[in-house]
Design a protein that fits this description.
Layout lengths: L1 E5 L14 H14 L1 E2 L2 H4 L13 E7 L4 H13 L4 E4 L27 H9 L3 E4 L12 H19 L5 E3 L7 H9 L4 E3 L16 E2 L6 H7 L17 H15 L1
Bound molecules: zinc ion.
Length: 257
């Protein structure tokens, strides 16, 4: 009943953003067996007023367009016939490119993002691509006019590359504010996705997702794919909070009886 948000599947990058490829493969197999994984676009009309999908449903998203998605996500998604949406930082696809300088933990080597050819290959294999802004700036720090320009440039470059409209946006770091949400609408997006740490007002320009991180064990990921957003926050059930996770799992089992 949730929209899950992954970032990288880098095997050796010790960042919360980098889920290990084998862990991801295990999570994907569990989702395929236990959830109906929907294309994000089909999920949107089914969201309730709190931004939740119907019981038993989930959707998969990846932010930032890291290069290793081609190696480690694509085969798993294809094998499991799992639909997924990747949100791209448009400037990374320009000839000049853009270094990955928006992450907090440096990679073991410079981190790279998907090339236009890899994006097109993945698109042809059925992966959906949408916008994660032009340059991964914190949009809440830009003026509304700057946000509109950034988001419009991203949508235009991506629709040009992909040959289809790009109506969906994931805010960099999930951050938004009233002027950012207005800018998303003015720049031509129909929906925008957040990554709330606590209950937030939900609307088309603040659709909640829940992040999956490197230290999340199988049980945590199952809970994240199950519980309402306000109860399971993105970051508060990491490895250090095992008792709480177990309590929630117990409640979940009781509910299922
Ligand atoms: Zn991002």
């Amino acid at each position: 009943m949730t929209i899950l948000c992954y970032h990288s599947l880098h095997p050796t990058w010790e960042s919360p953003l980098a889920v290990r490829p084998d862990a991801f493969a295990g999570q994907a197999a569990w989702l395929r067996r236990n959830r109906r994984v929907m294309p994000l676009r089909d999920a949107l009309p089914q969201l309730d007023a709190r931004g939740r999908l119907p019981r038993g449903h989930a959707a998969l998203t990846f932010d930032d367009g890291f290069a290793e998605l081609h190696t480690h996500a694509l085969p798993v998604l294809m094998r499991g016939r799992l639909p997924a949406t990747v949100f791209l930082v448009a400037q990374t696809l320009t000839p000049a490119g853009r270094p990955v300088d928006w992450v907090d933990t440096a990679g073991p080597e410079p981190l790279s993002t998907l090339t236009p050819d890899q994006v097109l290959e993945m698109r042809d294999a059925g992966v959906d691509f949408q916008s994660h802004s032009w340059a991964h700036h914190d949009l809440t720090q830009l003026s509304e006019a700057e946000c509109v320009r950034d988001l419009r440039d991203s949508r235009e470059l991506l629709s040009e590359l992909l040959g289809v409209p790009v109506p969906l946006l994931a805010y960099p770091r999930g951050r938004h504010s009233p002027h950012v949400r207005r800018a998303a609408a003015r720049a031509g997006y129909t929906h925008a996705f957040a990554l709330p740490e606590r209950a937030e007002d939900v609307d088309e320009y603040a659709v909640p997702r829940i992040g999956v991180y490197r230290n999340n064990g199988p049980l945590t990921v199952r809970l994240k794919a199950t519980r309402p957003y306000a109860r399971v926050r993105t970051s508060d059930i990491g490895a250090g909070n095992v008792r709480r996770v177990k309590r929630m799992a117990e409640r979940l089992r009781l509910q299922r009886r």
